[in-house]
Write a structure and sequence with these properties.
By secondary structure, the chain is of the alpha+beta class. It folds into 3 domains: 136 residues, Periplasmic binding protein-like II (D-Maltodextrin-Binding Protein, domain 2); 113 residues, Dipeptide-binding Protein, Domain 1 (Dipeptide-binding Protein, domain 1, Alpha-Beta Complex); 226 residues, Dipeptide-binding Protein, Domain 3 (Dipeptide-binding Protein, domain 3, Roll), CATH 3.10.105.10. It is 30% helix and 22% strand. It has a 10-stranded mixed β-sheet, sandwiched between helices. It has a 4-stranded antiparallel β-sheet with strand order 4-5-7-6, with helices on one face. Strands 13-14-15 form a 3-stranded antiparallel β-sheet, with no helix packed on it. Helix 1 runs parallel beside helix 5 and helix 13 runs antiparallel to helix 14. The protein is globular.
């Protein structure tokens, strides 16, 4: 690290400590209940549009979706109290909760819900946009969705944050979202993009009244700064801690640590249309080269998170114990590379037909373990003569690289349950055209047909066989390479009680929190 960077990091740390001191003085001046709950995380608010906002407003319980989900992914009522489907499975009706209000005082009606869903349906790349929707309209106190063909996961899709229901006053010219007016237990009182959101309890909320009346969310990019804020009391609940800081805080014992295993996998996205990476032997060699157990133990400080397949055990419907796990085997990796025509040059770097094996890998620091894993992968591949150019940038660079075709490898984590039924996510990620956080330059007609049959069918035995087939194809073809599974942790101040992390990452569950007595 250069002296300028060290100096900048030092200034940042001093600033955090000074701010924390101010926060501590404020805390000493009055009871906790008189102050906002301070939540700190790594994710900035780059957009208000539900299709690109990253779910911050549903996590803060400002906006609702028609359907909710419990810890196991079982669907529950949200803004819709009930739903049903016609015998032909093409017409769905969702009954809207009576008496619900938006934060501007206007009523939530079937008409306003239908209008919000039409906007969501118009956004390319969202789960709803991939559903075969024919029409969306109000029908009395229900919202009716007519489909061109059966699609069983529709209720689960309507639990995705991109389908959050906003008031008509949220929209400006061309249906662009200019402010967030939802119907949840908290309302936005202040918003400064991209770094902070402040919310307050909505008095007209029909459900359980929040015990904590005000919440302040702050986005902080550096994991070291987040750790300092947690230690000093500037944050009550802190997300996105790097493994080293988390272990140190656990050992200190002055703060509570809450953890939950997520249906999320850290993976390498591979441009299978690339001149080098299009060969499945090369993709398998990359997978065989990875020391997943070593990385999980040394970098994640959690050996159980070494990924043997794409789907983690926390996704029980899809995790397949019978599938042969991906494992490290350097000898097999070298043999596959040699079979594909790659031989060592004078400098030890593999080459074929005059071209050296050099590819780039993009990742980002929003999840602090990703740059660490990228560096470890780079070092391991170098041992085999594979040169990896690691580029740590903004998280938006991976979808941008997918769109313009410049992405070669991308390291990120994918949550398979943001739509509670993973089928919807997989059908999008591994469809014929691929997706920003799924396949690139790769498709399987067998996999596509299997996913389509599963979406249309109602046979549970057929669905189980389909999930096994999908897992097997992805394990063999490796359009993405699983690296590690994911455990989410939050550092919690002793001032706060009741935090239970959502394994689906849909909500921060602020309404469950209380100030410690």
């Amino acid at each position: 690290m250069s002296w300028k960077r060290i100096k900048a990091a030092g200034v940042s740390a001093v600033t955090v400590v000074m701010l924390a001191a101010c926060a501590g003085e404020s805390a000493a001046g009055g009871p906790a209940s008189a102050q906002p709950l301070k939540v700190v995380g790594p994710f900035e608010v780059h957009s208000l549009d539900p299709s690109t906002s990253g779910g911050i407003f549903t996590r803060l319980q400002v906006a609702e979706t028609l359907v909710e989900a419990d810890n196991r992914g079982e669907l529950e009522p949200g803004l819709a109290t009930a739903w049903d489907v016609a015998p032909d499975r093409k017409t769905w009706r969702f009954t809207i909760r009576t008496g619900a209000q938006f934060h501007d005082g206007t009523p939530v009606t079937a008409e306003t819900v239908a209008a919000a869903l039409k906007v969501a349906d118009s956004k390319a790349g969202t789960p709803l946009s991939t559903v075969p929707v024919k029409s969306i309209r109000a029908d009395g106190q229900t919202v009716r969705l007519d489909l061109t063909e059966p699609y069983g996961p529709l209720p689960a899709v309507l639990a995705h944050t991109s389908t959050q229901i906003l008031a008509p006053s949220s929209y400006g010219h061309g249906q662009s979202v200019t402010k967030i007016v939802g119907s949840g237990p908290y309302r936005v009182t202040r918003l400064e993009q991209p770094s902070s959101v402040e919310v307050a309890a909505f008095e007209q909320w029909q459900g359980k009244k929040p015990a904590i009346k005000e919440v302040s969310y702050q986005a902080v990019g550096r994991s070291e700064s987040r750790a300092l804020m947690a230690e000093s009391g500037q944050a009550d609940v802190t997300f996105g801690m790097d493994p080293t800081s988390l272990q140190r805080l656990k050992q200190a014992g002055s703060l509570d640590i809450s953890s939950v295993t997520l249906p999320r996998t850290i993976l390498l996205k591979v441009n299978a249309g690339h001149e080098i990476l299009s060969d499945v032997r090369v993709r398998r060699a990359l997978s065989l080269a990875l020391d997943r157990e070593g990385m999980a133990k040394a970098l994640l400080r959690d050996p159980e998170m070494a990924a043997g397949q794409l789907f983690p055990p926390s996704l029980p419907g899809w995790h397949q114990p019978s599938v042969a796990p991906v494992q490290q085997d350097e000898a097999a990796a070298r043999a596959l590379l040699a079979e594909a025509g790659w031989t060592p040059g004078p400098d030890g770097v593999l080459a074929r037909n005059g071209r050296t094996f050099v590819v780039s890998l993009r990742t980002f620091p929003d999840r602090p373990e990703l740059p660490l894993l990228a560096t470890a992968i780079q070092a391991k591949l170098k041992e085999l003569g594979l040169m990896l150019d690691v580029k740590v940038g903004n998280s938006s660079e991976i979808p941008a690289g997918h769109k313009d075709g410049t992405l070669e490898l991308g390291l990120y984590s994918r949550n398979f349950a943001l739509v509670p039924d993973a089928l919807a996510t997989l059908a999008d990620d591994y469809g014929p055209k691929g997706a920003e956080y799924g396949a690139m330059g790769w498709n399987s007609t067998e996999l596509t047909a299997t996913l389509q049959d599963m979406a249309k069918g109602t046979d549970s035995a057929g669905a189980e066989a389909g999930r096994k087939k999908v897992s097997q194809i992805l394990q063999e073809e490796l359009p993405v390479i699983p690296v590690a599974w994911y455990r989410q942790s939050a550092v919690v101040s002793k001032r706060v009680e009741g935090l239970a992390l959502d394994p689906l990452e849909r909500s921060l569950r602020l309404t469950d929190l209380n100030w410690a007595s």
